[in-house]
Design brief:
3 helices; 133 residues; globular; alpha+beta; HIT family, subunit A
Length: 133
């Protein structure tokens, strides 16, 4: 599925893209703004990512985390990579989740939410995309 998003075959709420990576909103977010960052190239796990691409992914994850603070008024971000175990999609991806103190997120238990409606998805996507400019 992620390869299809990367090549435009499946629609997604894209917040950032460059030549090597693409970031889009998770359709079942922990909190609104929960973003998945992937390499466009199919790579199964973190171990498969070449060093230069890993540096680019890390830098872009940092940019998205900053955008969450400026665009969504988050107080910080949780950044995580599941590597094989608990990796629900066999395509390396970085979760960047906006956080606020007292938001209820404890450890690695991620209660999922839904966006209110398509307008809410667009509002959050646009806020992140604008903050990434």
């Amino acid at each position: 599925m992620f390869c299809q998003i990367a090549n435009g075959g499946v629609p997604a709420a894209i917040v950032f893209e460059d030549e090597e990576t693409i970031a889009f909103l998770d359709y079942r977010p922990v909190f609104p703004g929960h973003t998945l960052l992937i390499p466009r190239q199919h790579l199964d796990s973190l171990i498969d990512v070449p060093g230069p691409l890993l540096a680019q992914l890390s830098g872009n994850a940092r940019r998205i985390a900053i955008a969450m603070e400026t665009g969504l008024s988050a107080e910080g971000a949780f950044v995580a990579i599941n590597n094989r175990v608990s990796q629900s999609v066999p395509h390396v991806h970085i979760h960047v989740v906006p956080r606020t103190k007292g938001d209820g997120l404890r450890g690695f238990f991620w209660p999922r939410q839904k966006y209110r409606d398509p307008g809410h998805i667009e509002e959050v996507r646009a806020a992140l995309k604008n903050a990434l400019k």
